[in-house]
Please model this.
Amino acid sequence: MTVTHVVTDTSGVPKYPFGPVVKLDLNPRYLELGRTEPVSRVTMPYGGVAWLITGYHEIREFLADSRFSSRAATEPDTARVTPLPLRPGNLLSMDPPDHGKIRKIVAHAFRPRIVNQLSERMRELVAEQLDAMEEAGPPGDLVQRLAIPLPVRMIVELFGVPYEQRAEFRKYSDVFVATSAHTKEEINEARDGLEAFLRKLIRIRRGSLSDDLVSVLIQALDAGHMTEVEAVRTGIGILMAGHETSLSMISNITYLLLAQRELYTQVYENRSLLDPAIEEMLRIVPLRSTGSFPRRAAEDVEIGGVLIREGDTVIFQRAAGDRDERVFEDPQDIRFDRKHNPHLGFGHGMHFCLGASLARAEMKTAVGGLLDRYPDLRLIGTPDDVPWKPGLIARAPESLLVQW
Model:
């Protein structure tokens, strides 16, 4: 018989986050909660108290439950980890039926034929970037030479942004995804700047439609299937997620492979491990520096034996769930021979990452390009010498200096 626990007393609720973000370390409090209290209360940096989910099964149950509204992420009084709520009109903040309608429209730009075409371009671009790094000679910076150029080039090609305009949206990127690195005013300015950029791009591209995402948005807008706000903000969400998360993951994966050099050697000596290595990195890397965007219970819902009341806010920490010992053998270890790896790196449920296949291809092509050339690739200095970007939603090294 399931025992339902109703929590009404919020006195003494621990403050969240649990401590400073350190490299790719996951605060041990997450794992402790995952074992003992996978659905627990925390006091958020903004907006008050929320539920934090840290268990794998409980996260999957939560993500699959349509009774939790994503619109909460746009409401100013919602408990959250970011200084500002999201703006309405973004896929991340939509509920059914709007979410399904808009997702179906933009999924057209991520169909397999398009991703396959981009995969061919990825290999060419990685070769070009590594040629340039070799010509310049060591030290090379894998962040500037590889992790940034690859996903940025792919998203501008998928999106239909002229490559020479990449700096125009890149200047807003880190500000847009800040938690503590920038002020509310700076974040709002970045949001305004990105919206102006997308509106201008839509105006320019109306007379030259093709197969790219901007054309898809324009056609849906003209047919009355989207509002201008939805087109612009959905576009921004994909533009940002499509390169910020990938460049962060490429940086993090290469850092881990070189910080624990035996991992790089494993994959170099056995290339069949490349795919499982990417999946294992997706599991083990705690990409978000804090928990997820918030959702709110539209009615009383029980998750993991805990009653979440209507109106309560909920977040989750994916990386904690992906180290749940109930699901993963030796969850703290990086194992490329892992047979069972149903990680949540791309989410679950209706908000499962649209660009998962593109992101996987980018990571595999980037790491594969390094393995093809550099048997002796190494960090310059020690792992402790690597600088990290502070105060952003996604963790990533600022630079990654290497020699070969």
User: Anything to note?
Assistant: Residues 1-8 have pLDDT under 50 and may be disordered.
